[in-house]
Specification:
Length: about 200
């Protein structure tokens, strides 16, 4: 959802990044998170393994780059109708989570971050912060900005996103969409109940 920053040294070749991203996405669809390895990515991308190792230090970072770092993020514009706006945001986020590469990557990424909690900051920056910004804009457009304490807005967002993520991982698409709408409705009620 954002772009990666360049590191010192030789400039990054966008063709290499594109080939690596395509290779990772194909491997995820073909065999899930477990199928992604530096060796297989390098083979499919037609680059040397050291090229991949130097740019992405861990498998989790490589997968996150492929599914989050350069994806287009176009949140729906808030209208001021809290429940309807949350429902639209839930639909957009759920559809992203249900794309085959992201859906295939989620279980492995969750496990990878459980084992390496210091990597959470990168995942939050790439995948969570843009959605939080859209969520906060919805709360503001509904006139609840300042009425609901900021920590409570963030907590409501965490519950909203957790519900969508778990739903995407465990339900078929029609059920997931229905549950996403329920998450939006419950979040609407929770936020309105937090007005100070």
């Amino acid at each position: 959802m954002s772009t990666t920053s360049a590191s010192p040294g030789r400039p990054r070749d966008p063709r290499v990044e594109g080939a690596v991203r395509t290779a990772v996405l194909e491997l995820l669809v073909d065999g899930g998170y477990e199928a992604v390895s530096f060796k297989e990515v390098a083979l499919r991308a037609g680059v040397g393994q050291p090229t991949v190792y130097r740019r992405w230090g861990t498998k989790a970072e490589l997968v996150e780059f492929a599914i989050f770092a350069v994806s287009e993020w176009a949140p729906p514009a808030p209208t001021g109708d809290l429940e309807a706006d949350l429902a639209r945001l839930a639909d957009v986020v759920l559809e992203e989570l249900l794309t085959p590469p992201v859906h295939a990557a989620l279980p492995g990424l969750i496990l990878a971050h459980y084992d390496a909690p210091d990597e959470h900051t990168r995942l939050r920056a790439w995948a969570e912060e843009p959605v939080l910004a859209a969520f906060s804009a919805i709360v503001e457009a509904a006139g609840l900005d300042g009425e609901v304490p900021g920590d409570d807005v963030r907590a409501a967002f965490q519950h909203f996103l957790a519900a969508l993520t778990f739903t995407a991982m465990t339900r078929d698409r029609p059920t997931a969409r229905r549950l996403a709408r329920s998450a939006a409705r419950i979040t609407d009620r929770a936020l309105r109940g937090l007005v100070s």
